[in-house]
Amino acid sequence: MLLDLLSQYLEELEATVRELENAYVESYEEEVLAANRVNLRIRVRFQTGYLLELNEAAIVEAGHIKHPGYRYHF
Prior knowledge:
This protein is an alpha+beta fold. The chain has one helix spanning 4-18, and strands at 23-34, 37-46, 51-61, 64-73. A hairpin with a 4-residue loop joins β2 (37-46) and β3 (51-61). The protein has one domain (4-73): Nuclear Transport Factor 2, Chain: A (Roll). It has 1 helix and 4 strands, in the order αββββ. Strands 1-2-3-4 form a 4-stranded antiparallel beta sheet, with helices on one face. The chain is elongated.
């Protein structure tokens, strides 16, 4: 089971991505590795044809969310 802080972060992130205007989510994947760690892979396609790919690792350490690795490609 995910820690509450990480669950809240994921819920807020997913809601934000899905509310983007002039874009749609091609894929949204959460890979839970442990109760305090998750990897994300998100692809957002804009009406203009542009594609934004986000890959991110999120972990909870000492009560805070940290991002030890990420990649954004536009």
